[in-house]
Design a protein that fits this description.
Strand content of chain B: 15-25%
Strand order of the largest sheet of chain A: 3-5-1-12-9-10-11
CATH class of the largest domain in chain B: Alpha Beta
CATH superfamily of the largest domain in chain A: Aldehyde oxidase/xanthine dehydrogenase, molybdopterin binding domain
Radius of gyration of chain A: 28 Å
Largest interface: A-B, 55 and 56 residues
Distance between the termini of chain B: 53 Å
Oligomer: heterodimer
Helix content of chain B: 25-40%
Bound molecules: FE2/S2 (inorganic) cluster
Number of domains of chain A: 3
CATH topology of the largest domain in chain A: Aldehyde Oxidoreductase, domain 4
Strand order of the largest sheet of chain B: 2-1-5-3-4
CATH architecture of the largest domain in chain A: 2-Layer Sandwich
Distance between the termini of chain A: 67 Å
Helix content of chain A: 25-40%
Strand content of chain A: 15-25%
Number of helices of chain B: 5
Number of strands of chain A: 25
Shape of chain A: globular
Order of helices and strands of chain B: EEHEEEHHHH
Structural class of chain B: alpha+beta
Number of strands of chain B: 5
Largest sheet of chain B: 5 strands, mixed
């Protein structure tokens, strides 16, 4: 018999049928009676003083119900991290990027709202702008924010061990510069918010967000509402991947306009506005110096990173910390130094995206590791196995890995890909590459400094017995968290999955910090398990008292009460239940006592049966400045092998096969774990091969659409073999930890290393467009156009 | 100035007064209330708004409502029969081909058209036929597997 009745199996997602039939309602599908439509005026210039804003004509346009600017919104500064609140809802004295918000309009329909925008007159005095990291950091550069001189948004300097001394002991020390480009998260659903401010002063906001809790706080803070009067509800969300991890101008504008008009207001972004809002992956420049012994033992790393942050901070402080801390694992690396800079430029702000902060650092490092292995004549697999961390290790930057199936991941992809046969024996133009990944399973600390619980789950048993409702503020955004929580609850409680209903993504239900930093399976999962255990205990206690049998001698399985001793007489309970339900057709006919009867009895004796589960990470290590970013209750590991074909004439790279292994601790829903692995792989493949947000000389995005910003189609994706490795994480519910983000980390470097294998050339700049590869094959730099 | 059009949507006839610049996508979503058809770009590039117009898949954001006059439209809402999921819908559910679900309607309709034209497509043909439907969540693997698994498909 399987150890588990429900978890660790393949379960169709509970919300799949409503999505398959078009019933699922996303934010833009919502229509409230009397709803107005909002639109946002955005700056057409990258850097300018605002001399005057005249909204007179717009206000007079028939059908316009409100026009708001900073004078209506106030100037409360907000952002993601309280350490860097540097945004206001609307620009006040100046604009800092093409797309900066200036005003918003609510009107009877979208057409009228857009027409009104064109009637708002703004006088600008253009200022010199900076668009590159170098220009922003140059002496005398134009400044974006007076409070942050030199355009330095954040800088980090950390050293663990003694890197200089360690380099002296190394047999080889290699330095390389690696460059990536700005990526867009390209979720399919543009942001949308529908706000409804009612007469009693309560605001309800439906938002396409990953983090209802943080949106609630930001909206309340910025608009001056008591936090208890703001309720954020997340309808179905069409993907997030990071940029939907913060309150957006659509949230704030819809809310403000609803407050001004007393009517519900919808504000959506167009696809172009999604690109303009951005908050996605930064453009990174990493300079890595790595030192190893002749036998491949890693001794030291000096990592310098420059991040092009755009005009505001968003998640950027965490990003610049992660770009250092996540190289602390998954290899034993005794000495590590990090110097990171996040720089303001006159472009849309970057933020968090899948694999937050760690993706490019990982790509650069894994590529350098392969180059070093080649120089030393060591197989790329062996150098990784040799340095792999293991359960119980603590990294030099104090990351404690309570489980880590890295070696198992490496061995799995080695075998399943046929690595040993293929490596070194593929024809020219064909290559095989491998790389590993490492990621947090939830941030150890909330974004704002607080001792808050990270997750609370409430499980209510229907008073009539039988069914159960699980309430959580966590955010189902397509990754399958609702199903995961239902599975954990059903398993713990011993009832059928179909007897559980999940209500989620609503700040009125219970606190949950949301879907970011790959936290929900572990954290919300913990709270779910605890809540279910409490329900079970309450019911069995009543039953124990009623039947005079110790609670430890009974259990609940598959919706039935199981007694350790034979012949327990529960006829009295059943008779009572039947009497209460005269005329009903679903009387329990089982020869065992049912959960339904026991739950009903518990209600009759105690009142409503409600179980509450709470989760807060244990005190985590790291006493140095910035230790909060990177500490996590658990870490995942991964390894990928990819095979590529490089057209030696045209430079076109195609990925022909991918074998991916991920240590998720324990797979609650096997199908969902694979889904996260496959989805991560496609996002990584896009970033490796073709994704790049491009700008013209005035800071305008050249490709804010899917025609020119290419994301992988079904034709770009190779067949993927996903291998789940289970290391049984002691800090995770049933041993589970993350998969949603960590699975992307190995993809880009595995592709880079396969291209290196195919061509013998290290290409240190993403994406690997045919043009770039072509010139690399020619041994030349591309001509400057 | 509104123009009167007659369309048949999922077998139901409608007579509607529409603005000349209204897209078929907005007609379906905002005037008829069939929000299963999704809006991901409005420029014909994501495929989320795919519907079947007189037997052919189109991106409804690039079709004007007036162009649909006199035509038959099938949207995702028209696929179930007698309360049962269409076999393609069922396959998407069973195989884990749906994550956020935003691409799903268009994806299923593209798959339906493919299987009508070619009941036993190869994997390459499946990939080609859904290459106009972007999915950012799944990496397409389980979508391809779902289409392969639809009953009635014969091995090639
Ligand atoms: S909305 Fe029509 S193709 Fe994207
Ligand atoms: S399931 Fe999210 S875009 Fe396809």
């Amino acid at each position: 018999m399987a150890k588990y009745a429900i978890i660790n199996q393949r379960v169709p997602k509970l919300d799949a049928p409503v999505k398959a039939t078009g019933r699922a309602k996303f934010a833009d599908d919502l229509v409230l009676p009397g709803m107005l439509h909002g639109a946002i005026l955005q700056s057409p210039v990258a850097h300018a003083k605002i001399l005057n804003i005249d909204t007179g004509k717009a206000k007079r346009l028939p059908g316009v119900k409100a026009v708001v600017t900073w004078q209506d919104a106030g100037l409360v500064k907000y952002g993601v991290s309280p350490a860097r609140y540097d945004e206001t809802l609307f620009c006040h004295e100046k604009v800092r990027y093409v797309g900066d918000e200036i005003a918003a309009v609510a009107a009877v329909d979208l057409e009228t709202a857009i027409e009104a925008l064109s009637l708002i007159e703004v006088d600008y005095e253009e200022l010199p702008a900076v668009f590159t990291i170098e220009d922003a950091m140059a002496e005398g550069a134009p400044q974006l924010h007076a409070e942050f001189p030199g355009n330095i948004c954040a800088e980090v300097h950390q050293e663990f061990g003694d890197v200089e001394a360690a380099f002296k002991e190394c047999d080889i020390v290699r330095t390389g510069k690696f460059v990536s480009k700005r990526q867009d998260a390209a979720f399919l659903e543009p942001h949308c918010s529908v706000a409804n401010y009612d007469f009693s002063g309560h605001l309800t906001l439906y938002s396409s967000t990953q983090v209802p809790h943080y949106v609630m706080r930001t909206v309340a803070m910025v608009l001056g509402l008591p936090v208890g009067k703001v309720r954020v509800i997340k309808p179905f969300v069409g993907g997030g991947f990071g940029p939907k991890c913060e309150a957006t101008p659509t949230d704030l504008c819809a809310s403000l306009l609803s407050m001004k008009t007393g009517k519900p207001v919808k504000v959506s972004y167009t696809r172009e506005q999604v690109f303009l809002h951005c908050r996605a992956r930064h453009h990174y420049v990493h300079e890595l110096t790595t030192g190893v012994k002749k036998d491949g033992t890693l001794l030291a790393l000096h990592n310098k990173a420059y991040l092009d942050g755009g005009a505001y901070t968003s998640f950027g402080i965490a990003t610049v910390y992660y770009a250092g801390s996540l190289l602390g694992g998954p290899y034993r690396l005794p000495n590590m130094k990090y110097d990171g800079y996040r720089v303001y430029t006159n472009k849309p702000a970057c933020g968090s995206q899948r694999g937050h902060g760690g993706v490019i650092a990982r790509a650069a490092f894994e590529q350098q590791l392969d180059a070093i292995a080649a120089e030393l004549g060591i197989n790329p697999v062996e150098i990784r196995l040799k340095n792999a961390m293991q359960r119980g290790d603590t990294s030099c930057n104090e990351l404690f890995v309570s489980s880590l199936g890295l070696k198992e991941c490496i061995q799995a992809v080695r075998e399943r890909s046929g690595w040993d046969k293929k490596k070194g024996s593929l024809p020219s133009g064909k290559g095989i590459g491998m790389a590993c990944g490492f990621f947090v399973s939830g941030a150890g600390y909330p974004i704002y400094r607080s001792e808050t619980f990270h997750s609370v789950v409430v499980i209510k048993v229907a008073d009539d017995g039988g069914t159960v409702t699980l309430q959580t503020g966590s955010a189902e955004i397509g990754q399958g968290s609702d199903t995961t929580m239902a599975m954990i609850a059903a398993e713990t409680l011993g009832i059928k999955l179909s007897d559980i209903q999940v209500e989620s993504g609503d700040t009125d239900l219970a606190i949950d910090l949301g879907a970011y930093s790959s936290r929900q399976t572990l954290m919300t999962g913990h709270a779910t398990k605890e809540a279910a255990e409490s329900v079970k205990k309450q019911i069995l206690e009543v039953l124990s008292d009623e039947l005079k049998i110790p609670a430890r001698e009974m259990d609940i399985r598959n919706g039935l009460i199981v007694f350790k001793t034979e012949g327990v007489d529960f006829r009295e309970i059943r008779t009572r239940y039947m009497k209460e339900h005269r005329g009903w057709t679903d009387h329990p006919a089982e020869s065992s006592l049912t959960f339904k009867e026991a739950a009903r009895l518990a209600y009759l004796r105690k009142g409503p049966i409600i179980g509450i589960g709470k989760y807060k990470p244990p005190k985590l290590g790291g006493s140095y400045k910035g230790a909060a970013v990177g500490t996590s209750p658990a870490y995942s590991a991964s390894a990928h092998v990819v095979e590529v074909s490089v057209d030696m004439e045209t430079g076109r790279v195609s990925v022909e096969k991918a074998t991916a292994a991920h240590d998720c601790g324990f797979a609650i829903n096997v199908t969902s774990v694979e889904g996260q692995m496959e989805g991560s792989l496609s996002m990584g493949l896009g970033e490796a091969l073709f994704e790049e947000v491009k700008f013209d000389g005035k800071g305008r995005i050249l490709n804010p659409n899917f025609g020119e910003y290419k994301i992988p189609t079904a034709l770009d994706m190779p067949p993927v073999e996903s291998i789940i490795v289970e290391s049984n994480e002691p800090n995770g519910p049933f041993g589970a930890k993350e998969v949603g983000e960590g699975a992307i980390l190995a993809t880009i470097p595995a592709i880079l290393n396969a291209v290196y294998d195919a061509t013998g050339i290290l290409i240190r700049e993403l994406p690997l467009t045919p043009e770039k590869v072509y010139w690399a094959l020619k041994g030349k730099k591309p001509p400057i156009r | 100035m509104r123009k009167l059009i007659n369309v048949t949507i999922n077998g139901v006839e409608y007579e509607l007064g529409v603005k000349p610049n209204l897209t078929l996508l907005d007609l379906l979503r905002y005037e008829v209330g069939l929000t299963g058809t999704k809006k991901g770009c409005e420029t014909g590039e994501c495929g989320a708004c795919t519907v079947i117009l007189d037997g052919k898949p189109v991106t409804s954001c690039l079709v004007l409502a007036v162009q649909a006059n006199g035509k038959k439209i099938l949207t995702i809402e028209g696929l179930e029969k007698d309360g049962n999921l269409h076999p393609i819908q069922q396959a998407f559910v069973d195989k884990g081909a749906i994550q956020c679900g935003f691409c799903t309607s268009g994806m299923i309709l593209s798959a339906k058209h493919l299987l009508e034209q070619n009941p036993s497509p190869s994997e390459a043909e499946i990939r080609k036929s859904i290459s106009g439907n972007l999915c950012r969540c799944t990496g397409y693997q389980k979508i391809v597997q779902a289409i392969i698994s639809v009953p009635g498909r014969t091995e090639k």
